[in-house]
Please model this.
Amino acid sequence: MLKIGVFGAWRGNSYINLFKQDEDIEIVAICDRNIDSLIENKADFENTYLCADFDDFLTEGIKRGMNAVFLANFFNEHAPYAIKAMNAGLDVISECTAAATLAQCVELVECVEKTGRKYILAENYPFMTQNLLMEKIISEGTLGSLLYAEGEYNHSGSTEELMRLTPGEYHWRAWLPRTYYVTHALGPIMYMTKSMPLYVSARAAHSDLLYQIKEKRHNYDGAGIMFCEMDNGMIARFTGCTAMASDYSRYRVAGDLASVEWGGYINEGKVRKFYFDHTKPENEEQVSLLNADLSELGEEGEKAKKAGHGGGDYWIVRNMKKCFIDGEDAYFDVYKAAAMSAVAILGWRSCLNHGENFKIPDFRNKEDRDTVRNDNLTPFPDENGNGATLPCALPFEE
Model:
């Protein structure tokens, strides 16, 4: 039995609902500074400890047998709480992103190595139904040598919605550079192609629309585009969280024989596979539109259909159980999580330096870790407005 505690009831709500439906999981504690407003129906959680303080959450949760923590707190604050939880003897699954600085990446990796606790990044986009189909096709080798991949994550909103999601002058959403929210674009590429980023260069583009609310949301760039050399010889182009006028996200992987891609409403959500005429096998069409059908996966597929993010949330819970209960290694372990955070962090520095190329540290290697061990540069101020050492948007003159 997995006895889990959830830190962050607002972002964690969809997973709380999935945990409640799973016979292998018991929610023993939930912590949020606004716990009373977020958990209104206390009767639904009569056996769950509800609190607003993280230390209290750990102490009481452990008394109740808590053996793992799901982190759904503020975007830029995951690493310190993950480290505190692992030092208390708990396994950790971290939603969103692993670390906000390179120094935190090092601390997180070394905490996992020191404590022996299990750590998973709960990145759900690789497990969306269409992305799972793309991964299956790529793994069959029919694309030939992988040459190029794209990942594009679009999530904009009206100025009213953006302000509603930014409660407070120093809330993280007001200071988040465009490259930092990278996991939904890069994560699927890494998973589908089984590759790791080696170098990153990036550019950002200004948005006049977002600039109108610059006094409240200071990150007024509309797009951050990153370009990576991957360890399988492939090159990849991907975004952070963009505010471009596009109603869907998209993914594409191209080899020297064929390519696969899908994007939101294009082709009614089907995966498109393309061959050159001279590379097409006799039993294949030159262009195929493929249904990503979860029912082929039996009972698990039926369960995934009911979960959020195209079934991705179900597979996160399933993979968490495989790791924490059955002892299997997680695909998005602490090393991959740290690498993605480093791409986001160094991608932003590249934007600030006109596309300068940066090497991604290999966090398995102590010598690489030592090069960034004391690198605490950050665009995020603390709750009092202090501590930011980088701008969160490109300079712009009206």
